[in-house]
Amino acid sequence: xxxxxxxxxxxxxxxxxxxxxKGYELGRSHRQYVPHGLRSAAHGGYRxxxxxxxxxxx
Amino acid sequence: MAVANCPSxxxxxxxxxxxxxxVICDYCHSVVARTDRGLEDxxxxxxxxxxxxxxxxxxxxxxxxxxFRLVGRTQMRHQAGGMWExxxxxxxxxxxxxxxxxxxxxxxxxxxxxxxLPTFEQxxxxxxLGDLVVQEIGTAALISGEGEIPWRVMPGxxxxxxxxxGPSRKFATIDYSEDVPLLFQGQETTxxxxxxxxxxxxRRERKVSVERLxxxxxxxxxxxxxxxQAERIVCPNCGGVHDVTSEGNLxxxxxxxxxxxxxxxxxxGKGKIGDVEYVVxxxxxxxxxxxxxxxxxxxxxxxxxxxxxxxVDSDDHWSFVEPAATGDxxxxxxxxxxxxxxxxxxxxxxATVEFVAGEFYWKVQVGETVRAVDYIAPPEGxxxxxxxxxxxxEVNWSHxxxxxxxxxxxxxxxxxLPRPSKIGMIQPYTGGKVSDLWAKLIAAVFVIGILLxxxxxRHEVFSQLYDFSTLPPxxxxxAKNTRVVFTPTFELSGKNLEVEGYSQVTNSWVYxxxxxxxxxxxxxxxxxxxxxxxxxxDDGHWSEGSRAKKTYVAALPKGTYSMRLEAQWDEKSTPxxxxxxxxxGVFRWTHFFLALLLVTLPAIFLGFRKAxxxxxxxxxxxxxxxxxERDDDDEE
Lengths: 58, 636
Fold this sequence. Notes:
By secondary structure, chain A is mostly helical. Chain A is 36% helix and 3% strand. Chain A is elongated, with a radius of gyration of 20 Å. At the A-B interface, α1 and β1 of A face α2, β36, β37, β40 and α3 of B.
C-alpha cells in the first residue's frame, strides 16, 4: 500500500508540475478553429461560434 | 597444600587452596571444615547427581588473562524442583570465582564488597541495584558436592538468594547465607570465554540414558530430542506424565485426563528458522481468562547449540520466541525497552497450562499458572512471565517475532495450516507507514510550485477600458443591450492567461463574453466575465457579488492575438465602463491546492485504514494503546 501510495503521489506531483508548466487549465475547453476572415464578418457571425449566454442578474 | 584424613571415614582429604573453607570427602561425602581446633565433620551430603555437565574437577581455565582451576562444586536444588550446580574456581591471583551452571548456561561471579544491600525481606523481583535488576529470589537447598569449597556449607541447610541481571550479560547474586548479605558480581559467560575447551573433555553424557523410551502407561514410543535437558516427559499418545530421575530413568507419575488439541506441527518435526535447525520437543496449550477463556498453543523447540526456543500459535498467528536477558530489558511498567525498541503493554493476566505433550526442561504440569504480561511493538513483542510467590519468585523475559503462516509452513515442511481470520497481537500492518511519504510529496508540491512561480513570472499583456454603452447599437432590435468590440492585437508567449474584468456596477450586472483569437491560425479560445454586484440595508449593510471577475484561459501558442468582446447588461440601467486586463504566466493557486488535496486524500484514507487495523488489534487487549487499563465499559 505504501508503494502504491508512493507511485500515485509521485504521479500527482509530476502531473501538477506538467499541467502548470504547460499552462493547461482543468475543465471543458472552449478552444476551436474558425475560418479566416471571420473578424470582418457581419455582426453576429463570430458570435455564432461561441456564445454561452448569461444567466445572472436579480 | 595440607593433606589430612577424613574425620568420618579416615580417607585422605586435601586442602590444596589455603583459603578453602571445607572439603567434601570423596569417599564418604562428609563435609570437613578447617577450624582453629583442627578438622570438623559437618555431616554428610548425598552422592553427586550426574547432570551431564561437561565440567569436572581440576579442569583448568583462563578468564580475562587470569588462570584458574576448578577445585570443587556444589549441587543445589531450587524449591520449585529444578537443580543447578556451582563450580568453584581457585584463581592464580588468589581470588575465588563462582561458576554457576544451569540449563546449559554459565555465570561467573566474584565476591565484591558492597554496602547497603537489601535484606531478603526487602528484596523484590524487578527491584534495581544500580543497573542490575532482580530476576529471581528463592531458597536453595544443598544436595551434594565435591572437592574444596570456599564457604562453610552445612548439609541439609537452605540458603536464601537473589539473582540479578544487567545489560551486556551482567549477572550478580546476593547471598543471604550469612548474617550480612554478600554480593557476587560477574557476567553470563561461555566455556570459550572461560578458556575451557569442551572438545578436550569427555563426551557429555546424557541425562536420560537412551533417546528411545516407551511410555510406562500405554507403551507408546517416547522419542526424546533433548535427553540431557529433559525434566518432564508427557506421552503424546496417552498423556502419561514421567519425571526424569537423577539416575536417568523415567518415573511414571500419572496420566493426564484432559485431552488437548493436536499439534499442527508434529512433535519430533524439524524446522529451520534462520540458520538454525530446531526439533519440536514439546507442545502445550495455555489459556487466559477474561470474560471467556482464550487459548493458544506453544511448541517447545530445541537445538543442541542454541538451546530452547518457542513457536507460539495464537488465533492462527505464529511467532518465534527467544529468551531475553532480564538485565537487557528496561521495565517501565506500561512500556518496556529492549534493544532500542519501545514496547507497549497489551495484556496482563494469569496464564494457565491446559494441556502438555512431549518433553520439557522443567517440571511442567497442567494447571501451572504464571503471571504473563505481553508488550507489543509489531511485528515484535516482549513477554514477561512471573512465577512463584513472594519469596520464591522468578521473572523471565522473552522476545517474540511475528512469523507469517507461509514461513512456518516452509520452515517445518507442513502444509494447510489455517489462515488467521482476525488481526493478531503482533501482526504487522502491511500497509506501511505513509506519513513520511506524504511529507515528502507535500514538500515536492511546494518545490514545484515555487519553481513555477519563479520561472514563469506573471506579466500584463493587455489592458483597456471599454465603455460599451457608447458603442453603436446592433441592427437586431432584440439585442439592443448588446455591444461587440474587437481589441487591438497583443503578443502572447505561450503561457496561461488570466483575464480580469472590472466595472463599478451597483445593484446591476454586466456580462462580457470574450474570444481570444489568432488571425493567422484561426485558433480561438473563449471566456466569460459575469460581473454583478448588489448591496443594500436590511438590519445593516449587505452586499452580494463582486465588481471584479477573473477567469483563466489555457496557454495559447506563441503569436499575435486579439479579442472579440461582447457585452450585455441590465436593460434597466446603463452600464459603467469595463476594464479588461489580460495577464500571462499566472500562478494557479487552485491547481496548487488541488495537488496538495490529491496527495493528502489517499494518505488520510490509508491513515483511517491503519487506524481501523490497530483498533482491531487492540480490541482483545486488556490495555488500550495509550497504556490505560481497559475496564468493562470499554469492552462493551
